[in-house]
Amino acid sequence: MPEPAVRAAAAADGIAVRPVEGALGAEIHGVDLTAPLDGAGWDVVRQALSRYGVIFFRDQALTPAQHVAFARGFGPIVVNRFFQPVDFHPEIAEVRKEPHHKDNIGGGWHTDHSYDAVPALGSVLLAREVPTVGGDTMFADLALAYDSLSPGLRATLASLRARHSSRHVFGVGGRVEQSDLADRIGNPEAASQDAVHPVVIRHPDSGRAVLYVNPGFTLGFEGWTDAESQGLLGDLYRHASQPEFTCRFRWATGSIAVWDNRRTWHLALNDYPGERRLMHRITIEGVPLAA
User: Fold this and answer.
1) Which of 274, 268, 260 is nearest to 104 (CA)?
2) Is residue 103 among the annotated active site residues?
3) Which of 36, 135, 162, 248 has a C-alpha 20 to 30 A away from that of 153?
4) How is the chain split into domains, by residue range?
């Protein structure tokens, strides 16, 4: 990580990029996202996302239309199949937990849309209402996690491909239907997505090697049974979720997080019983992944 004296990097037109405490992530200051970014501003934002894996903005009072316009600056939008959409804005998925709910959305480590044949580039999450205490989000850097693996394990993983699916989470009889999420996430008959991706991908932009499996949607290795896969997958999951590969973001109303789904995991902490948390998420379309 940069030394404290150079942690605040002056960017363009008064924009500042400041790394957060942890292994990844940076806050971007001096930006009002209610107005369109100019070319220099977009250069700063995209370069920061590429460098840090997840970027954060504070105090952004965006309308849903402005949220959509900002997200489109990263690429085409993927309309979520399962989450409730925001009224009049089908591009925006509602991520909500009411005071009476026990389960939250995204409460385990995962990568959005890894079950798609072409996984999502990233997500743009805007905080509309947050609890008085708790409700932070954790992020993990799977490029750093891969870099710290032994050469022997890297060689083993290089030839493996992993099976991902939406069925066991969003489908009939899946995790959603076995929880109290069913009043917020639906359309189980649409959970027909199965995909196979390299266990180690080359990031489409940076070219870095990234570990591309996750506890939420990965079932096992191609050619292995799920039971045979669990030992090695479990070792990889424990490795990647170590504190030295993570950061933690504390939300406030108007905060925005933009993360790279090809490089990161995230986890929404469920530590605010009896309080409401409302987030609006937009997912950005990606490109095919390759080893």
Assistant:
1) 268
2) no
3) 248
4) 4-284
Query: Could you tell me the pTM of the whole model?
Result: 0.94
Half-sphere exposure of 184 (CA within 13 A, CB side): 23
Phi, psi dihedrals of residue 28, rounded to the nearest 5°? -110, 125
67 a catalytic residue:
no
Rounded Cα distance between 241 and 128, Å, is 28
pLDDT of 7 higher than 60: no
Task: Tell me if 131 sits within 8 A of 264, measured CB to CB.
Answer: no
3-state secondary structure of 152: helix
Pairing label, strands 277-284, 194-198: unpaired
pLDDT band, residue 136 (cuts 50/70/90) = very high
CB 283 within 8 A of CB 123: yes
Characterise 121 by phi-psi region: left (phi > 0), alpha (psi -120 to 50), beta (else): alpha
As a CATH number, domain 4-284 is 3.60.130.10
Catalytic residue among 96, 110, 163, 203: 110
- In the predicted model, is pLDDT for residue 1 greater than 80? no
Is the Cβ–Cβ distance between 208 and 202 less than 8 Å? yes
